[in-house]
């Protein structure tokens, strides 16, 4: 298995493609931070660069450092926020971590690839990098993103707002407009049945039933009186499960609830409420206030408030904190460089003072880039400072078709918000990924090495994607993932997915198989998913999803239904 994987990787590197014979679609790469994970829905925050936004229903390739994780499907976009779900198999994501997404720069419109400008998107092209996008550009988020199921397909080139850098002309134009409101409501339910056979004996099985109903609301208001804007995202759910010890069946999650104002006289922006500070690399959620000053390419600010409860996103006054940050951005025709640093202190009511700091930089030159990140925490008892995370990432476009990624990361487990904290479990990770694009084909090959003092592991992954094949115009994806933990065992996960878009339908299906031999315990499992999206109107859609799992010791059947409405 190892030899076959190594040979395929070497062949991938040595493979040369005639540029005249291939037409590689331009790819957009963007870093995002995982803001929230709620069941099969994931909220992401985009980095602040000029991007051709993906259309609703687009498949986003997902990377962690140099490791290819899988694919996500875009459900809704409120730039710089994205709401996605797993398009194929589920892979682990952690709230607060930074991952990389890739998608096509154009939208398939009548068989042609068009950019945001050509498709009539509502964004800004060639404008002042510090200016706001047209406030009316995303007044109807669904229309701006494009309709992946209907015949009226458009894309949007949405320029994220650079906080505090709005020009006087754009502010004056905004103030003359009436308030703009946009948003989306989701109503959904998920019912599941799971059976566990203890020790593989059917007469010792345990059957559980669960149901969860939920409602998500996202809205944004712009050009409000006094130059204010508001934004909110939240979720209310009700869960029922047999054999559960939970008493709190209702759960309310507030991901974002803030008011912001950009002043005319000085380049200052103020945010109040629950917000996410994109200039911080860790512990970026705040309940409080932030003042951000932008002077040309330089910027900085102060933040004060409280740390939200991580499990329920509830409001707590037990962890007051304060911090500050600085950042700098340089952009030329071929060079993009950003660097930012932040530090904060936490003042728990019944615990010792804690603090953390970090610095991050990103460099891009044509098709070459390098990122570095350093994070440090102070132990509350010993006052010892330790580097808890050091990360290096690099990528290079060797040709229009071939891209190589490499990464190194050193992590020390530490949580500054627990009653008991200590530095432990040092881990070193190395990754290498190569991606080859050829016409409507895409090949991804990756390797990862994980070294810990008492445990080492190696993983290999391969994926082939075939977009809009001649066979019924279906898009295919075949993948395989192999993990070897040496004395701990090994596992193999493989599968195939298919998707097809019709006039108002988007259909997806997938099969996967998983086999593990962990500490001499063998386990085999298979899974199936079927997904259907139907566009009732331009602003209203229905989604249905079935997921089944069958294994030696466990099985599960789950059905999800949801209704989306944009306004």
Structural class: mainly beta
Radius of gyration: 24 Å
What is the strand content? Answer: over 45%
Low-confidence stretches: 1-25, 106-175
Kindly report the average pLDDT value. Answer: 76
Kindly report how far apart the N and C termini lie: 52 Å
**Main sheet?**
22 strands, antiparallel, barrel
Helix content: under 10%
Separate helix tally: 3
Specify the overall morphology. globular
Q: How many beta strands in the DSSP annotation?
A: 32
How would you describe this protein?
By secondary structure, this protein is mainly beta. Helices cover about 5% and strands about 60% of the residues. It contains 3 helices and 32 strands. The strands form 4 sheets. The chain has a 22-stranded antiparallel beta barrel. It has a 6-stranded antiparallel barrel with strand order 1-2-6-5-4-7. A hairpin with a 2-residue loop joins β29 (about 505-520) and β30 (about 520-535). The longest helix has 13 residues, at about 1-15. The N and C termini lie far apart (about 50 Å). Residues about 1-25 and about 105-175 have low confidence and may be disordered.
């Amino acid at each position: 298995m190892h030899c076959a994987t190594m040979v395929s990787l070497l062949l991938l590197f040595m493979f040369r493609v005639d540029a005249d014979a291939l037409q590689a679609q331009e790819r957009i790469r963007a870093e995002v931070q995982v803001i929230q994970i709620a069941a099969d829905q994931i909220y992401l925050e985009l980095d602040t660069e000029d991007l051709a936004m993906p259309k609703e229903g687009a498949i986003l390739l997902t990377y962690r450092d140099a490791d290819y994780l899988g694919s996500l499907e875009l459900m809704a976009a409120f730039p710089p926020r994205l709401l996605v779900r797993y398009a194929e198999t589920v892979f682990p994501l952690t709230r607060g971590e930074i991952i990389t997404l890739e998608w096509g720069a154009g939208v398939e419109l009548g068989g042609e690839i068009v950019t945001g400008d050509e498709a009539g998107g509502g964004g800004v092209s060639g404008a002042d990098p510090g200016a706001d996008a047209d406030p009316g550009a995303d007044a109807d988020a669904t229309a701006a993103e494009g309709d992946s199921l209907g015949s009226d397909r458009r894309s949007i080139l949405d320029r994220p707002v650079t906080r505090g850098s709005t020009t006087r002309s754009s502010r004056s134009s905004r103030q003359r407009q009436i308030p703009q409101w946009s948003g989306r409501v989701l109503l959904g339910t998920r019912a599941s049945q799971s059976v566990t056979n203890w020790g593989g004996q059917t007469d010792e099985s345990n059957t559980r039933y669960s149901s969860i109903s939920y409602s998500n609301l996202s809205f944004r208001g712009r050009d409000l009186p006094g130059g204010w804007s508001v934004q909110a995202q939240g979720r209310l759910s009700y869960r029922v499960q047999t054999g559960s010890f939970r008493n709190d069946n209702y759960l309310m999650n507030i991901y974002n609830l803030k008011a912001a104002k950009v002043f005319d006289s000085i380049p200052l922006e103020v945010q109040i409420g629950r917000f996410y500070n994109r200039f911080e690399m860790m512990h970026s959620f705040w309940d409080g206030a932030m003042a951000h000053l932008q002077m040309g390419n330089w910027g900085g600010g102060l933040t004060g408030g409280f740390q939200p409860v991580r499990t329920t996103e509830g409001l707590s006054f037990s962890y007051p904190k304060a911090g500050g940050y600085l950042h700098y951005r340089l952009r030329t025709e071929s060079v993009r460089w950003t660097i930012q640093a932040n530090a904060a202190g936490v003042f728990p009511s019944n615990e010792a003072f804690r603090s953390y700091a970090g610095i991050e930089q990103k460099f891009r030159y044509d098709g070459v880039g390098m990122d570095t990140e350093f994070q440090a925490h102070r132990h509350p008892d010993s006052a010892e400072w330790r580097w808890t995370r050091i990360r290096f990432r690099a990528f290079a476009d060797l040709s229009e078709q071939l891209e190589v990624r490499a990464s190194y990361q050193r992590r020390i487990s530490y949580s500054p918000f627990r009653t008991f904290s200590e530095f432990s479990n040092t881990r070193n990770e190395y990754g290498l990924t190569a991606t080859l694009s050829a016409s409507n084909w895409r090949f991804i090959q990756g390797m990862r090495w994980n070294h810990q003092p008492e445990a080492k592991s190696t993983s290999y992954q391969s994926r082939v994607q075939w977009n809009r094949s001649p066979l019924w115009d279906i898009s295919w994806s075949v993948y395989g993932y192999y993990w070897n933990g040496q004395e701990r065992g090994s596992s193999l996960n493989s599968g195939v997915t298919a998707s097809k878009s019709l006039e108002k339908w988007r259909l997806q299906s997938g099969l996967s198989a998983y086999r593990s031999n962990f500490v001499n315990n063998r386990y085999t499992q298979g899974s199936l998913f079927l997904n259907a999206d139907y566009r009732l109107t331009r602003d209203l859609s229905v989604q249905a999803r079935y997921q089944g799992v069958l294994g030696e010791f466990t099985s599960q059947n789950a059905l999800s239904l949801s209704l989306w409405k944009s306004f």
